[in-house]
Amino acid sequence: MTAPIVLDSDPGIDDAVALQYLLGTGLWDLKAYTTVGGNVPASQTFRNGRALARAFGIDGDVPVHRGAGRPLTRLPYSAAGEFHGAEGLGAERLPDASVPEQTETSAQAMLRLSRQYEGELTVCATGPLTNVALALTEDPDFARRVKHLVFMGGAAEVPGNITPVAEFNAWADPDAVDLVVSSGIRYTMVGLDATHGWRFTKDHLAVLEDAGEGMALTARLMRYYLEAYTEAAGSPLHDPLAVGVCADESFVTAADGTVVVECASELTRGKTVFIPYDSDYPRAYYAESPLVAARTAHRGRVALGTGPRDFTADFVTTLLKRPGVA
Ligand SMILES: [Ca+2]
């Protein structure tokens, strides 16, 4: 028995292996692979999404949609090419899918699927939240129809990675994240607090490189990704962890609370302020600011660290179950 899910993504290397991991779990019925501008521009993430669908043998079954080309209310920004390569997938130039291009946008596909699978649909977002915000703007009831949104983004109690205080996806479209977390949608934020705890190392790479032709693309992508990070601890598994948490929260430790995103400041743009909520000891933060205090009515789950279940081990084992064809 599999559950319906949409993967909303800006591929991107860790997005690519997040797709492969999702397929490998066997837990999900992937209804759409929706792309969004982020790591590279939207036209490129769409092309990469189609190419990955072909590489993992799902292009005939899973539609790939084109997403928002710029943030909700801001000018486009320069992308994160240094981690992902000029076209977003390391040094790869993968062939396009053989099926015709979808004309329905990512936000439209999400809205349609939320009606078709009302109360059942999980949305996993591993890029900027622009598409999800657009769906909510078009129809605020999207928040109620979606079963669970898990998004990779933000930094609750740790420094950022694109500025000292902001994580890339939250920085890229802060207005979108703020709209989403105040919409009433049931959400779990999987940010740097947790993703920096699950690392992919040279030893894990060796397992993939020894696994033969079906893992060759994955191994090349992960080698590129590993070399882009200079930290000895290895590369954080940002996007795959969000997919993992869709099925099992025990990969992280999480707490209830409110997220408010800094949208007004250039200096702290995209900082995700986490306001914890403890039902035993409720505390009135921001009592002098009625606007911020009102926001604490909207609570979600926020990952604050690694959990008891070993995500990196599950990630590697699961990838091996889902070889690629390119
Ligand atoms: Ca991503």
From TrEMBL:
<keyword id="KW-0326">Glycosidase</keyword>
<keyword id="KW-0378">Hydrolase</keyword>
<dbReference type="GO" id="GO:0005829">
    <property type="term" value="C:cytosol"/>
</dbReference>
<dbReference type="GO" id="GO:0008477">
    <property type="term" value="F:purine nucleosidase activity"/>
</dbReference>
<dbReference type="GO" id="GO:0045437">
    <property type="term" value="F:uridine nucleosidase activity"/>
</dbReference>
<dbReference type="InterPro" id="IPR001910">
    <property type="entry name" value="Inosine/uridine_hydrolase_dom"/>
</dbReference>
<dbReference type="InterPro" id="IPR015910">
    <property type="entry name" value="I/U_nuclsd_hydro_CS"/>
</dbReference>
<dbReference type="Pfam" id="PF01156">
    <property type="entry name" value="IU_nuc_hydro"/>
</dbReference>
<protein>
    <submittedName>
        <fullName>Nucleoside hydrolase</fullName>
    </submittedName>
</protein>
<dbReference type="InterPro" id="IPR023186">
    <property type="entry name" value="IUNH"/>
</dbReference>
<feature type="domain" description="Inosine/uridine-preferring nucleoside hydrolase">
    <location>
        <begin position="5"/>
        <end position="278"/>
    </location>
</feature>
<dbReference type="GO" id="GO:0006152">
    <property type="term" value="P:purine nucleoside catabolic process"/>
</dbReference>
<dbReference type="InterPro" id="IPR036452">
    <property type="entry name" value="Ribo_hydro-like"/>
</dbReference>
